[in-house]
Amino acid sequence: MESKSDLRISGIGKSQGGSYSHVRTDGMAKIKGDTSCISLDSNGTMSIEGALQSESVTVNGTATVEGHVNTNRMVLDGMATLKEQVVCTELLTVNGRLSVGRGLIGEKVEIFGNLKTREDVGCEVFSVFGGFSIDGLLNAGLVDVKLNMPCRVQEIGGDTITVRRAKKYSVIEQFVPALSARLHAHTIEGDEVDLEYTDAEIVRGNNVRIGEGCKIGRVEYKQQLQRDADAQIGSAHQL
Q1: Residue 239 CB burial class (10 angstroms; 0-12, 13-18, ≥19)
Q2: Closest by Cα among 206, 207, 201, 198 to 187
Q3: pLDDT confidence of residue 181
């Protein structure tokens, strides 16, 4: 098997892309071209002017990747801008802010900070303890949202969808509703749907619970509908 060299950049440095064993950057690093490696660890500021393929990616600081990103595991502590599609086959953990220019495909996505994508998100598990903005469809087997920030999505589809509020109302939220920790969606559809503090036009499901703080235009359910006395529902229909 061909032995590949490591790429290490410390301080301020530039390098060409290529195929490496391990890539580590400390400081300000610019890599020009597509890059493939077994692992990539970035501390500081890193930019890659090309695509990135790596079994694992760890970012502490800020990172920008111009091309597609394909990895098994990614941990982001800081801010990352990934301008094309991201595929993460095992686990993506976001502890800071991640902006994805295209869609996101993964197995398990954990958001403890903030996620923004301009296209769809597809995964088996989508777990949030922060906020997100998805300009498309969120499709996941399990959607578990603990609202800490405003969350927006065009549509959610899944087997089990649960939305809870993770914090009490703050004074700022009372005067600036846009900063309120609520979920805003057009359509939410799943087998088991359990919502709190959600604004949606349409909610569909087999068993649906519309809880505290919800404002729903139309609810369609097959088996059971539970509603909190505080919830606002325009109309409800059993299919």
Answers
A1: exposed
A2: 201
A3: 87
